[in-house]
């Protein structure tokens, strides 16, 4: 009978052990920066009631119209959705637990999101976002600080130059006036509109500006600009934001066509873009969403946030050659089985007490075959808990790597068993300092 082969779900990736170091590096670097700005972690479930997203993201969006993994819970008939983004879920949780009662919140999250898109480079059906939400603060100082925080993250990660694009969506009434003008403009150009645009003409004409259809680019480029409909307050918000971002030495361009995928934004919207990843060059998007907290049932409170796509950030790190090499083993312990195996296990425990990362050879085997395993493990040192040496109360230590001459134990050396953990820990420290 043919063996059944199992594969992962299309568009959903395994993170393999050889990539663990870069994933951990990205997360810990970003979290280190977030903590310097007073952000705290929040974790919400991967499943939410579908309404959280239809209400929170908006009915007339790509996400809700065609990208959500939704299903009925067969146990009780609940309508559930695998989260396509996390802002709505975070706001749901903040409201449910009254986290804005008499205070503000600065929150970050990290985790998988799910969207039923056509898989391609930088676009997957399960992908990871790291994001943050600043809730209860009006801005634009908070928006500016968020952009400074992101700029600091790019530097800390070493992603190389990324471009910041800024825009404003103004306030509701301004968007309405602009919307009317847009509808009139697109009505006069019906023949150039594609299917998506026709469908959105009366539901969400702003989103037509976001089209990726090359045949509509001239049309949208000449469309009425929201910037021309802004009142004094919205203009003031944007110019103060620009002033603060400039003062921090961060370069940006105003992109009047930047409207972003989600419905709940007002005032500030921004994206960070690289030209090194082809079509999927946006590594981070964000903006202000003052209506959202109330839309999801809370007492009105303003908010601003961002989400970065981790796969794209990692791909960019590979492009610029900034991927950390992963070393996962310091020491490989070789032994002769029997009692020497017991001594090997105990010696390994003592080395781990000294923070050394140790693999003990599993089972038994010739010294030669164990040496091969030691080498393949990437360990810096082999420790030989072998019968003759242990009989004298000693083990042998040997550096396995090319730089042996520059660190202790270049030659195989006998060390008292009791001294070995400290001696090995010092040798590992010397390797790290190279
Ligand atoms: P796009 O225009 O590329 O579809 P979006 O506007 O849908 O992006 P957001 O909802 O703002 O994206 O998500 C924030 C970030 O998450 C994006 O800038 C991107 O880096 C990442 N991202 C979004 N969708 C995907 C996906 N399907 N696969 C991988 N990363 C994604
Ligand atoms: Mg999208």
TrEMBL record:
Protein name stated in the entry: Histidine--tRNA ligase
Signal peptide feature range: none
Quaternary structure (record): Homodimer.
Positions of L-histidine binding: 85-87, 115, 129, 133, 260, 264-265
A GO molecular function held by the record: ATP binding
Domain Aminoacyl-transfer RNA synthetases class-II family profile: 1-362
CDD domains: HisRS-like_core (cd00773), HisRS_anticodon (cd00859)
Organism: Sutterella parvirubra YIT 11816
One GO term (biological process): histidyl-tRNA aminoacylation
UniProt xrefs under InterPro entries: aa-tRNA-synth_II, aa-tRNA-synth_II/BPL/LPL, Anticodon-bd, Anticodon-bd_dom_sf, His-tRNA-ligase, HisRS-like_core, HisRS/HisZ, HisRS_anticodon
Reaction it catalyzes: tRNA(His) + L-histidine + ATP = L-histidyl-tRNA(His) + AMP + diphosphate + H(+)
GO CC annotation: cytoplasm
């Amino acid at each position: 009978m043919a063996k059944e082969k199992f594969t992962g779900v299309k568009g959903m990736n395994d993170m393999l052990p050889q990539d663990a170091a870069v994933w951990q590096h990205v997360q810990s670097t970003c979290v280190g920066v977030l903590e310097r700005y007073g952000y705290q972690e929040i974790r919400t479930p991967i499943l939410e009631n579908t309404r959280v997203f239809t209400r929170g993201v908006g009915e007339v969006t790509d996400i809700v119209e065609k990208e959500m993994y939704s299903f009925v819970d067969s146990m009780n008939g609940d309508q559930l959705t695998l989260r396509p983004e996390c802002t709505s879920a975070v706001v749901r949780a903040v409201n449910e637990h009254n986290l804005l009662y008499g205070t503000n919140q600065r929150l970050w999250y990290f985790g998988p999101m799910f969207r039923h898109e056509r898989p391609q480079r930088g676009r997957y059906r399960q992908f990871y976002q790291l994001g943050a939400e600043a809730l209860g603060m009006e801005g634009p100082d908070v928006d500016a600080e968020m952009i400074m925080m992101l700029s600091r993250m790019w530097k800390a990660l070493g992603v190389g130059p990324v471009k910041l694009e800024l825009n404003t969506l103004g306030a509701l009434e301004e968007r309405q006036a602009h919307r009317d003008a847009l509808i009139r403009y697109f009505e006069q150009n019906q023949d150039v509109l594609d299917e998506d645009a026709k469908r959105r003409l009366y539901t969400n004409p702003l989103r037509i500006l976001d089209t990726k259809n090359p045949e509509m680019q001239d049309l949208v480029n000449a469309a009425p600009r929201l910037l021309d409909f802004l009142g004094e307050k919205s203009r003031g918000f944007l110019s103060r934001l620009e002033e603060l971002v400039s003062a921090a030495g961060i370069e940006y361009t105003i992109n009047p066509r930047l409207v972003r995928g989600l419905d709940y934004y007002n005032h500030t919207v921004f994206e960070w873009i690289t030209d090194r990843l082809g079509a999927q060059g946006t590594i981070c998007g964000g903006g202000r969403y003052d209506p959202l907290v109330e839309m999801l049932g809370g007492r009105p409170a303003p908010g601003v946030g961002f989400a970065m796509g981790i796969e794209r950030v990692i791909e960019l790190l590979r492009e610029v050659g900034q991927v950390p090499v992963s070393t996962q083993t310091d020491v490989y312990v070789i032994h002769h089985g029997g009692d020497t195996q017991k001594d090997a296990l105990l010696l390994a425990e003592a080395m781990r007490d000294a923070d050394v990362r140790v693999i003990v050879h599993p089972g038994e085997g010739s010294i030669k075959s164990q040496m091969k395993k030691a080498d393949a493990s990437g360990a810096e040192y082999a420790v030989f808990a072998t019968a003759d040496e242990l009989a004298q109360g000693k083990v042998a230590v040997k550096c396995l790597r090319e730089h042996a001459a520059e660190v202790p134990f270049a030659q195989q050396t006998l060390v008292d068993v009791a001294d070995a953990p400290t001696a090995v820990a010092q040798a590992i420290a010397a390797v790290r300092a190279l």
